[in-house]
Design goal:
By secondary structure, this protein is mostly helical. It is built from 22 helices and four strands.
């Protein structure tokens, strides 16, 4: 096992070290530029620096409070407290090369759904959820956290933060760190345990219990398209295809995509350096066109079928909206079948929202109009996390547990739209979190699959109250 771990370190070291040194170089250059900028701005520069330092102190205090809370309320594992579990984790730490076992504790913190390494001033703890089942499959996630701790990934990522403006470079480094964690963790497992452990870590416990693992693996073993591979440039996690390949499954490597992505990461520093130089030498373009009213920018909207009223509702002023409502067709739809009332759900500003809503209804807008996605205006507001508008619909009499053709309730749509405030509002108004859609998913199952920790906490609290 030791030889295998050393081989893993040798394979991953060059790639991770390359991105680390590139980020370190970017960080040093950026830091020098910031110092020069502060000195050039004089008093204003000092004030801005003080503001940034104050923000960093606030972040540190928040982390300190979190660490102290977990340490105070958690249960530390030891030779006398759950000795069997502690002994197994201590053996894993020794195999990973730790000279001293990190502090390991269990916590009831509802935000903690997976093993996490949390620390302050290089004092780190491995924190496990209180109900976390420890077996060979879930052990993989703990081993990954130990690998991150062993490689000092958290400190390095924080140290290199200000140099992360270079496109694709930080994401490439984070993917290399995650790949390192995978390789270290897999090296501690037997060949039979590796694939199940990796797949469960990817899909989560909710899907793991209901899925066909072999069919899933066969799907993910197919070589991804160039577009799919290129999208990995923006992700912090390696693709499933890549992670399965690391675990030892035979795959056909998309060489063109890998060469192209490597080229983009390598050239991004030079491209941005040229862009900065060009920006300092050329005059800034005029921006007077940006201040034109939205209703005057209709030519670019024609392909989407948007009316002037729809464009004004989405990004215009209240005066523009009020001026257009009397002369507009409330039954007009865009290319997706959305009406003006659907567009109100997309509007970000809540100023004058209730008045516009009432005016649209008075002008003949249909609250039961359905777009191409089968959504009524109410559901569009829910999915867009437009809490104020959702509340207006509920006051008007919308059914809190209504269902669409796929058996989705408004609560399902709010979770799908990742709208914490809307989820909270719906639960307060009596939404049932136990209802399942046509696929058998409750809102909580969906939130767990999407790893929406804040929403998971809300749903679990409500679930407990209704039991």
């Amino acid at each position: 096992m030791t030889n295998e771990t050393e081989a893993v370190q040798l394979r991953i070291g060059k790639r991770e070290r390359l991105y680390f040194w590139l980020l370190l170089l970017s960080t040093l250059i950026t830091g020098c530029a910031l110092i020069v900028g502060v000195l050039a701005l004089g008093t204003l520069g000092v004030a801005l620096l003080g503001l940034v330092l104050g923000l960093l102190v606030a972040i540190w205090i928040r982390q300190w409070v979190r660490v102290m809370t977990i340490r105070t309320e958690g249960v530390f594992l030891s030779e006398t407290q759950q000795p069997l579990v502690y002994a197994e984790l201590r053996r894993d730490a020794e195999r990973m090369g730790f000279w001293k076992t990190p502090e390991i504790l269990l916590t009831q913190d509802p935000k903690m759904t997976r093993p996490r390494t949390i620390g302050l001033f290089q004092k780190y703890m491995l924190v496990l959820p209180a109900d976390y089942l420890l077996n060979e499959t879930t052990r993989f996630e703990i081993l990954r956290e130990l690998a991150h701790l062993k490689q000092n990934h958290e400190e390095k990522q924080l140290l290199l933060l200000i140099g992360s403006w270079v496109p694709f470079l930080r994401a490439a480094y984070l993917r290399a760190c995650e790949e390192t964690a995978d390789r270290f963790a897999l090296a501690q497992l037997t060949e039979e345990e590796r694939i199940p452990a990796l797949v469960r870590s990817i899909v989560g416990p909710a899907l793991w219990r209901r899925m066909d693992v072999m069919h899933y693996i066969e799907q993910k073993q197919q070589a991804p398209s160039l577009a799919t591979s290129m999208s990995e440039l923006f992700r912090h996690q390696p693709s499933v295809y890549r992670r399965l390949a690391v675990a030892g499954l035979k795959t056909t490597a998309p060489r063109l995509a890998r060469v192209t992505s490597g080229l983009l990461v390598s050239l991004s520093c030079l491209a941005l350096a040229g862009l900065v130089f060009t920006a300092t030498e050329l005059e800034m373009p005029q921006v007077s066109d940006w201040t034109q009213p939205v209703v005057e920018q209709n030519d670019t909207k024609q392909d989407l079928g948007e009316s002037k009223l729809m464009a004004a509702i989405q990004k215009g002023t209240l005066d523009e909206i009020n001026q257009l409502i009397p002369e507009s067709d409330m039954k007009a739809v865009d290319a997706d079948g959305d009406t003006a009332l659907h567009y109100l759900g997309y509007r970000k500003s809540s100023e004058g929202l209730e008045a516009v809503f009432q005016d649209l209804l008075a002008a003949g807008s249909d609250v039961d109009a359905v777009n191409e996605f089968g959504e009524r205006p109410f559901i569009t507001a829910v999915y867009s996390n437009n809490k104020e508008l959702v509340e207006l619909y509920l006051k008007r009499g919308e059914a809190i547990n209504q269902r669409d053709d796929e058996e989705y309730t408004p609560l399902h749509h709010a979770v799908e739209g990742e709208g914490k405030e809307t989820v909270k509002l719906l639960l307060e108004r009596g939404a049932d979190p136990a209802l399942k859609n046509a696929d058998g998913y409750t809102p909580l199952m969906m939130a767990e699959e999407y790893e929406l920790e804040d929403i998971i906490v809300l749903l679990k609290q409500n679930q407990t109250q209704t039991l």
